[in-house]
Amino acid sequence: MRRVVFNQKGGVGKSSIACNLAAVSAAEGYRTLLIDLDAQANSTHYLTGFTGDAIPKGITEFFKQSLSSGLAAKKSRVDVQETRFANLYVLTASAELADLQPKLEAKHKINKLRKLLDQLDQDYERIYLDTPPALNFYSVSALIAADRVLIPFDCDSFSRQALYGLLAEIEEIKEDHNEALQVEGIVVNQFQPRASLPQQLLDELLAEQMPVLPVYLMSSVKMRESHQACMPLIHLEPRHKLTLQFVELLHLLESAD
């Protein structure tokens, strides 16, 4: 299973959702890998605590090697990091990804990630891909490499307007590059049920028969505490309501397989 969490709008919780679903998956016994494709490296820091020069080479080194010619490119290796959480592994990102992007685009390396995942499938039962907040080389590579896509949505009007274009872009990538890609659904994040605007926007999406998943992730300070502690919610506070919502969401997604 290869699941990419993607929305080209920033601040909708991509990294939080990808990391916490991966952590729940690992806690339930699946050998799980998270691949961080964002130069901001938020998922890398969240799951490992690494920052700056302390970040292992990870996916950055893989893409650098892919720019080499001949045998060096064919022997590209990845430095997967074992986290302190059982069954959970990370392929780290770094700021250097931003500098590599135009070079990778110029050499048409858009299928390199898919080939890597074909190899990694042998070692990991679940692979999650966290993407940058843009439809760029890395997010398109992830959509080509994955078999399903989850779309975070944070219930504001701008996010709703962007959602329609996003679904159309995913459909185009599916038609041109990855016919097996499935949109699993829209994940409502940072939901405030007592506020009128979020509920109104949600009702409108449901009325339009958008693929909104029936688990709405609540807004909670516990998520910020989780980020600060570099500890996913399933380990920081396993009985918290938001943690249980992540567990429910994962079970919902797995039951649809």
Give a quick precis of the structure.
The chain has 257 residues and is an alpha/beta fold. It is 48% helix and 13% strand.
Describe what this molecule looks like in 3D.
With 257 residues, the chain is of the alpha/beta class. It has a single domain, classed as P-loop containing nucleotide triphosphate hydrolases (Rossmann fold). It contains twelve helices and seven strands. The protein has a seven-stranded mixed beta sheet, with helices on both faces. Helix 8 links the parallel strand 6 and strand 7. Helix 1 runs parallel beside helix 2, helix 1 crosses helix 12 and helix 6 packs across helix 7. The longest helix has 20 residues. The protein is globular and about 55 Å long. 40% of the residues are buried. The model has no long low-confidence stretch (mean pLDDT 93).
What are the key terms here?
single chain; 257 residues; alpha/beta; Rossmann fold; seven-stranded mixed sheet; 48% helix
Sequence-ordered SSE layout with sheet pairings:
Layout: E1 2-5, H1 14-27, E2 32-36, H2 42-48, H3 58-66, H4 71-74, E3 81-82, E4 88-91, H5 96-106, H6 112-120, E5 126-130, H7 137-145, E6 148-153, H8 157-176, E7 182-188, H9 196-207, H10 221-229, H11 233-236, H12 241-255
Parallel strand pairs: 1-5, 1-6, 2-4, 2-5, 6-7
Antiparallel strand pairs: 3-4
